[in-house]
Amino acid sequence: MESLRRGDACGNPYRLSHRGKIISFSCDRAPAADGSPISELIFRSHSFERGKGAFLKAADGAAVLSRSAASVDVVKCDCAAHVQRRVSTPCVLVAERYERGESFRYSLLALNSSNRLEPCIEFRLPYEMRGSVSILQGPTVLWSHSGSVFYISVQAGEVRQIPIQLSHTVTGELPFHKDQIFVLGLQSLSGQPSDNQTLGYFVDTGHTFDGSVVLPHPYICITRCILVLSAAEADGGLKSAVLAATSNKQLVYFENSIVRDVCELPFEQPDNIQVVDTGRAGCLFVISFQQGHVCAVRRETFQVASHWSGVSSVHVDDFMGCGTDQMLLTFEDPGATGQALEKFLLTDLCGISYARCKDREAAKTSPPPPENYLLTLQALESRLQSGLTVLQELQREVRVKDRVLQQAVQALTDVVSEREPVLTQPEQEGLIALWDCDDDESKEEAADDKTQDMPLVSSKPQVDKLWHRIAEGRMVVGVILTTNSSVPVASVSLSVLTETGQSSTPAVIQTQSQVFWLPAPCSSSSSSSCSASTSLEPAAKRSKQHSAGRPNDLNACRLAVTAVTMLTPLLNSGWVKCRVVLHYVQRQDAFAVVSNPTPVVLHCGQVALDIHSDFQTRLLKNPELKTDEVKEDLLSLMAFLEHWVFQIDSPDHSLGDIEGWIQKRVGCKRIEVCPQYLLLNSSGPSALMLLRWHQITPFQGELSVHSSELQMLQFLDSLLAYLPASCCIQIVKGARKQGEAQIFSLALEKEVASLIECVSSLLCEEEEEEMEERTGPGHEARPEPGSGEGLRRCRQAWQRDVERSKMRLSPLVDLGRYRRMTQSLSKVQLDGDLAALLDTQRTLLS
After folding, report:
1. What is the DSSP letter of 241?
2. Distance CA 673, CA 625 (A)
3. Structure letter (DSSP) for residue 98
């Protein structure tokens, strides 16, 4: 992002910022090999070197523009989202003027990741662009001429004119997938100024809309530039938050087209608005003005924090590489060569400040320009104010302690003198009684009865560290959290969001999350307090200002959450930033059942992805180190590699020293940061293996293996040769990729077994009833075989057998039994359908 005048005809270059670097563009004429002059577009990129406090050249290049043009000039340069590449790309608009005729040839060139200028758009105009020219997402070039608005984009391929006539136009962008670029203006209905209406036009689709949903009608005529902070479609309308800088020296904040706040600006003719996200210090709005003026407005107070004059350009980016934004102000220097930044101020007005001034013509005795001292002092002023606030709070606490000590001494003196002590209520001093008493218990019970239906407000987990590792087409992102054990969390997972441009919507990348519990640090004081809690003294109350989320708390728990994702959906270029978001469910206590849990989302930070990095971490180079980085390497390996757990039983012989046998293998080393794990490192991440042996009894143990499937099978083959022949190895936990398939197969097996069992039990019950009929009281007395009664009974038995054979072909069962059978089978089939769905999703996403 940049603003103000980027360059001029005197050699000062046009500049923009991109990915923490400053890129400058300038045109030059040089003789070719045949002696004819050619026009070139030269670019140079500079990155900030913190140790030297200066911008050093990182890359440069040039592109030949024309051999016949009379003059070549840079019109505009800016960063825009490239729709085809889905990345933010530096773009520069160049105008070529020829001696014959009055035609102008314009070229929009984009600087790719390989530091090469590529042409995007070329068009001719019979006139020269003057006034405001914008380079927007697409990329799209938009300008005004003779009261009309024109534009050209990569999708359009030609110069187009907006079909409606608008006056007092303002251009902006909405954070949507479509209909992003819009133009606001006044449309005359009958030629009278009183009949004008506010109308908006979407450049991408050609649709019109009511412009008053973005900016109220009275502000259209006086608005010089706008910035849409947020926008969302809701209830058939548009909910938005918009900043507008007016010609009346005002910065106005609108919510849903309603004025919420106004700030008086120190200068006139505003030109551009930018947002500086300084992290914990909040956000700043940087407004650029014509004539080289700039001011910064704090978002929280909506007041001017600082202002500068004589500014050549202002840029917003993470130049320090610290994860937050800073603003870079470059100052006019007529004696400069035109490319290097020799007079600049890099600051965020809350702790970061780098100022550089180089005056070639100043004498040795003359002091440096006074504005640099003022710029540094203004940046340090905010830190001084925050320090004074902390000092005042400490002084207030000291006064409270002194007053409490005086009252305690007075009370002790009254008791010794057998006088009745007079004490103020603890609430008046802002204190809480240390020991429980009957009155306090009754008050607390009454308060609990009144507030028992109110939900318990709990603190969020604290993000201590964020890291990432890359290996073999996958990325591992990890977060160290500190949470309160009295308010546990469940269903913890990480999501990775990619942002390829400021106007694009973040995309969620599919990840697989794991949670590892880490030991919480416990100091000596904490242990002593634990042992002292068994005394017979009354229980002390916990202070209201006690924070359960601090690392030194006895209830504090630390856990590491990792997520593994493929690099293919992440990378659109060689370098991209990703946001990491934590999802969890928080409940009141560890024994409460989560019913209708509400997921909580916590932003953990950003990671800068670089595919050129390798997996040669500190852990692989030296497993004997005990640092936090090595611990992160270990957690990354555990998340990256597949995991198996085997139970080994030896009924006839003892297992022996299995851990010693593992340590004798070539390349095996113990990880000092976690001694129970052994590392086998052959060559490359695919040959890595983490082993942990837990001896339960002399005849039984548990082996945990983190490795690829081939490495695991090779290791088990060599282990079986060492173990006694009577040993039995059973898998307790398989790899993550086999979990869904195993669950699906078990569910199908259970479904088939249940069906066989239910049908067989139903038919067996019918056969039992038949046997009861045969062996009933009527069948006890059997007649003689040759008698007539015997023949009649034999005929009846034969007829019953015929009927039973017919019923077995299409048996009739009891309705109640059949209903119970179908209900039990439906439950089993639902489990099978769920397992099939999980296995299908895993197959599609893998």
Report:
1. E
2. 7
3. -
